[in-house]
Amino acid sequence: MLKITKNAGTPGHPVHSARPKASDAVTVLTFYLLVLLVVPSDRRVAALGGAGAPAGLFALASLLWWCWHHIQHPHAAWTRRFQPVRTAMFVYCAAVAASYAMASLSALPPTDISVADMGLLRVAAFAGILLVANDGVPSGERFLVLIRRLCLLAGLYAGLGLVQFFTGISIVDSIQIPGLTSSAVGGTEARAGFIRADATAMHPLEYAMVLVMALPFCLTLALYDKKRSAFLRWFPVAAIALSSVLSVTRSALLGLVAVVLVLLPTWPRAARRGMIAAFAVVLVGVYVAVPGMMGTIVGMFSGGSSSVSSRTSSYDTVVGFVELSPFFGRGFGTFLPSYRILDNQYLSAAIETGLVGIIALLLVIVCAGAVALAGSRREPDPLLKHLGTALLASTIGGALLTAFFDCFAFPQACGMLFLVLGLCGSYWNLTRNSVPAKPVAAP
Q1: Confidence (pTM)
Q2: With b meaning 16 or more CB within 10 Å and e meaning fewer, what string describes 361-384?
Q3: pLDDT single digits (tens) 172-182
């Protein structure tokens, strides 16, 4: 991890730059994204059980790498400055540790105690990837490199989902990786006669969350990153938008609407009109090319749903468990599916880490969104400025979808969430000394 340095630029318009080492945090995070999105999410190191997900192991190694750099550079600027997202993450880790202590002192079944031990490792992995992203990106240029790589991977990820939708073949089930075993039932799901694609994810909802959180970055680069070819800029946008519409998942559509509503007011009028027209073309194309899909989408929102009623009927169960240990919960990860499937990570967090834990988790999310918004307001460079809004939209989209399923049980979903939260903190670091851009009157 390197210090953030700024070379002299035009007055009031500093240039973010630094000479990165051969291997900095951006390289580490790129490998993490490859492991996270390319390796099927259900693969595990069999000897490690539930803690054997490759992305989780990589994130734990990242935490050790972050600790080593703090020891090696105790007086570096990024170790001494106040970091809102990093501080909020430490508060959340303390809340999880308190819930673990409660689990150890409670008369829980042995299976729940063992899961609590594994829960500590999972939270350490979350913290590792967030801290590396928060503290390790050395410059705006390297930050942009990471976002470009993320968008390319997300486009390929969505493209694999499209292949699954139109062929009905999972593809990833036939992939054998030495040393890894599958921990989930293979094959593709179907709803209303349509294939629910999931690319390399374990579940369509996990797939939807990755798409929704990547879309704001893809849209921003497509509109403002003029240094790349039109294909590289627009392919991820087209693939993700089409995949979201064809996902047969309410969560993906709601997340898509949420991120577009956040981004739309920040775009120029011509871009707003063009994007609305493009989405209209996508919908018309889906209506013509995939008969029955638009009716299925309308039916998902207009009629009753067993999944919605299952979620709302869980509130009494949640209240009962929270009353048993209201402040620190019963231990992170100890509310097993055998008790009840809540399909809402916030409700699970309230049971497992109590009111203190759920407030701490919300604090991390709110801090990340707030610093991204603050950084975008003072960043003079147009592309980096709009990336701050993209970070805010991605955080909101991820926070919204976290309420629709047990996000922390899925490596790609929670890995993407904490990576973006860490990038919000990194963005704040890179823009904290920027001179706010002065408003320019329209001609």
Answers
A1: 0.89
A2: bebbbebbbbbbbbbbebbbbebb
A3: 887 888 888 88
